[in-house]
Amino acid sequence: MAGSWHVPDGYGLVRLEDVDSTNAEAVRRANAGEAGPLWICAAQQTLGRGRQGRDWVSEPGNLYASLLLRLPLTGKSVTGLSFVAALAAFDAADAALAGADPGGVLSLKWPNDLMLDRVKTSGILLEAVSTGADTPAAVTCGIGMNVSHHPNIADYETTDLHTHGAVMVPGDVFTHLSKAFVQWFAVWDMGEGFTSIRREWLERAAGIGEDVRVKLPGEELTGTFIGLDDDGAMILRDAAGGEHRILAGDLFLGATAG
Ligand code: BTN
Questions:
Q1: Ligand 1 atom nearest 63 alpha carbon
Q2: Atom of ligand 1 lying closest to residue 22 CA
Q3: For the range 241-248, what are the long-range contacts, defined as Cβ-Cβ under 8 Å and sequence gap of 24 or more?
Q4: How far apart are CA 184 and CA 217, in angstroms?
């Protein structure tokens, strides 16, 4: 696993050559009593998990990292953590692209994708861990970033950092990610700072004020992407002026999606 893999003080780090899924490994460790915070990274995953039950293709050369945390919070307030992770992924990619030729424009796509020139380069999967009666609740925040290559996905376009001229290896991208995560986690302040996180996320967001399409289980909505509510749900205004609050779905911006 190339690069220098560092975590801030107070965080643990486990590096694996291969694993089914770093999120699955985090769940196993939480169930075995791991208190965290613990980063679990793998050079490759054999059963990488994506959002909405999809697979996450996980060949060597990209970043696969999960952070196991125990938080004194309910499931609903934990969702803000995925915006924290998205901001950290943005900063890590930004560091990797510094001075890169041709580089590209980074943006965030609801709910928590990182886009490069509006094409997906990173995804985040937040999973609650049911550890029985013990509290605080455990959560794993999994981040996959296309560093040196990208998979061909039928449903949406993908890219990677090296295609845009970055040369940074996964370990160094991870070191930026883990550092940025701590900074945004402090801003989030166990949900008390969600308003600041939302503002920062919206400043980097793609598609605000644009006509978009959202795929939900069994239906599709079109309208203007207005913003996010206090729970991080997307607010969509349809052609008749009705407002929809969407907690989960796939957002399609123009021709791209993820
Ligand atoms: C998405 O579908 O956009 C989310 C992808 C999340 C992938 C990461 S890679 C590290 C962690 N382990 C997994 O199995 N999934 C997440």
A1: 9
A2: 12
A3: 246/214, 246/216, 246/221, 248/52, 248/111, 248/216
A4: 31
Please state whether the predicted TM-score (pTM) of the whole model is above 0.90.
Answer: yes
180-208 per-position pLDDT tens digit: 999 999 999 999 999 999 999 999 999 99
Q: Who's near 202: CB < 8 A, 6+ residues apart? A: 208, 227, 228
- Residue 199: partners with Cβ closer than 8 Å, 6 or more residues away: none
pLDDT of residue 77: 76
Output the CA–CA distances (angstroms, integers) from residue 102 to 113, 116, 164, 166, 169, in the order listed: 21, 12, 6, 9, 18
The token duo for 120 is 């997906």
Which atom of ligand 1 is found nearest the CA of 65? 10
142 CA to middle of ligand 1, Å?
5
**For 112-135, what is each residue's pLDDT tens digit?**
999 999 999 999 999 988 766 555
Which pLDDT tens digit goes with each residue over 220-243? 999 999 999 998 999 999 999 999
Pocket of ligand 1 (CB under 6 A): 21-23, 45, 48-51, 54, 56, 64-66, 113, 123-125, 142-144
Q: Are 146 and 132 in contact (CB under 8 A)?
A: no
Query: Of 1, 18, 23, 46, which is best to mutate to test ligand 1, by the most ligand atoms within 8 angstroms of its C-beta?
Result: 23
